């Protein structure tokens, strides 16, 4: 299932606040879980709303960084209510459009107040906001160094070829080898590092439950020859600002 809607060249340049950050100044390893900026792995089930989980993960991260509070936010509110633009609930969507909705809506409510049902539902308008964002920005396309600058500062939404068998059946370790770049799945980049044998990797949070990958997380090879990145993860990254 394609969960990321085709952009058809519509992606806008919105500035990149980390452009002048020196790569030499970045930490060698980042893991936003250790800084309390990542909620437990969630499970989207059979609903094709990875875009909502990706956008929420990035939003939860910047809210924690800016306010000190880690709040599990409602993906279901996006699925039910963000339906007047490009996003189409369980039929797919875009992280940037989710960020637009969060801004226009004045934020998102808590997951506990608007729990996930893994199906399209009727919007519960008037839900009280638990957290919000000010704007969002796109990371320069096909630039893993730029993505590294962003991830060093906050969790970032990324799109990947989640339909590729290498990704589908990942079970642990650093994912290497061949992977497609037909973007169809949204996840969150929550860190990076290097293994003891020198393999650089991205640390990613998926939304397929804790039985997939490394308890729901994934390490994917970083700084590969293809500028699009492994599974295309450097093609369309973006992040919310607070």
Automatic annotation (TrEMBL):
GO biological process, one term: proteolysis
Keywords: Disulfide bond, Hydrolase, Protease, Signal, Thiol protease
CDD domains, A to Z: Peptidase_C1A
SUPFAM superfamilies reported in the protein's UniProt record: Cysteine proteinases
Recorded GO MF terms: cysteine-type peptidase activity
SMART domains (alphabetical): Pept_C1
Residue ranges of domain Peptidase C1A papain C-terminal in the record: 26-241
Family: Belongs to the peptidase C1 family.
Protein name per Swiss-Prot or TrEMBL: Peptidase C1A papain C-terminal domain-containing protein
Organism: Lolium multiflorum (Italian ryegrass)
